[in-house]
Design a protein that fits this description.
It contains 12 helices and 14 strands. The protein is α+β, with helices and mostly antiparallel strands.
């Protein structure tokens, strides 16, 4: 058998050389595409469900939100465990499946059950699936710094949410970007109870007026000769003044505006913590989450390629400063493994 192989190789030298080059090419491509990371991700197959409900207490979140969702998710194919953690206004339900179940198939099963669970939840509860990531998916972390202190914590958080995060989510392999620190900007309507009483207005009427007077309306088009005029009703509020000018009710042909019964200010969402960097005051940070199964090195390299575009989009004086990069750990790990094989296990390379 060996003689036949040798004779064939001698007679067909060009064919053998071509096959060798093809195998070497495939080997090189495979080497370039091998996902390299600092440590293996052994997280089981799980789907996380995030439920938010304003300022609802933990017992109510557990009883009225987490429990109905858990009951609805029971009995899924290849399900092994359902557990939950409830806090103020938040419930995290973790659904664990058997090993080998496709992640996207598992998410599809959970999503279908959530459609039925939404009808059993209190009004105002929002339920959504968590990102396709794991605890080892935090591959890149950074802070936003205002060099001249021109932008405060609220403005930096707004920049992070509406400029940096959308750009980073376009990087292949990035499933989400979490924001930390700063203050979430809000337009707050501070009701004056004595004014409501004097005008005979209820709090519900104020809520309805704010909701109904914050929308654009479409009126199709009007033909004018050979042209068409698009009809639009612009009603979206843009600033505090627009909110103040919303009419709540009309009393004796005199309108009562929001400004008559409340103060409209720019405030911040309630929070339970803060973020500082090197003790230099409040900061805003972002954590890039990698898609489960992706290569940490490749995803971080993609993030770094986006940094010039992000810096160009940032306001003058704001800078993105990284403080954790997974590729540094990958390089150290790969170097250490190579050193072990060369120095501590010399017989492997001989």
């Amino acid at each position: 058998m060996i003689n036949h192989i040798l004779n064939f190789s001698v007679r067909q030298r060009l064919l053998v050389l071509l096959a060798t080059l093809i195998l070497a090419g495939f080997g090189w491509l495979s080497l370039r595409q091998i996902p390299i990371d600092a440590f293996p991700d052994v997280t089981n197959v799980q789907v996380q469900v995030l439920a938010t409900a304003g300022g609802m207490s933990p017992p109510d979140m557990e009883k009225l939100v987490a429990r109905p969702v858990e009951i609805e998710l029971a009995g899924l194919p290849k399900l092994t465990e359902v557990r939950s953690v409830s806090k103020i206004g938040l419930s995290l339900i973790t659904v664990v499946f058997e090993d080998g179940v496709n992640d996207y198939f598992a998410r599809q099963l959970v999503f279908e059950r959530l459609q039925a669970a939404r009808d059993k939840l209190p009004a105002g509860v929002e339920v959504q699936l968590g990102p396709i990531s794991t605890g080892l998916g935090e591959i890149y972390q950074y802070t936003l710094v205002s060099k001249d202190k021109k932008y405060d914590a609220t403005e930096l958080r707004t920049i992070q949410q509406y400029i940096v995060r959308p750009i980073l989510r376009t990087v292949p392999g990035v499933t989400d970007v979490n924001s930390f620190g700063g203050l979430v900007k809000q337009y707050q309507v501070l009701i004056k109870p004595d004014r409501l009483t004097s005008y005979g207005i209820t709090l519900q009427q104020v809520f309805e007026a704010l909701e109904k007077n914050n929308a654009n309306a479409c009126g199709n088009f009007i033909e004018h000769g050979s042209e068409q005029y698009v009809v639009r009703g612009l009603g979206l509020v843009k600033d505090t003044k627009d909110i103040e000018n919303i009419i709540v009710v009309t009393h004796e042909h005199a309108p009562v505006y929001v400004r008559d019964v409340a103060d409209v200010v720019i405030g911040a969402e309630l929070r339970q913590g803060a973020l500082t960097v090197n003790g230099e005051g409040e900061a805003v940070a972002g954590i890039v989450l990698m898609l489960k199964g992706a290569s940490g090195r490749d995803v971080v390299n993609g993030v770094k390629e986006k940094l010039p575009a992000i810096q160009k989009a940032l306001p003058k004086g704001v800078e993105l400063v990284p403080y954790y990069d997974r590729t540094d750990l990958v390089k150290v790990t790969v170097h250490r493994v190579d050193r072990i094989f060369r120095e501590e296990l010399p017989f492997v390379t001989e």
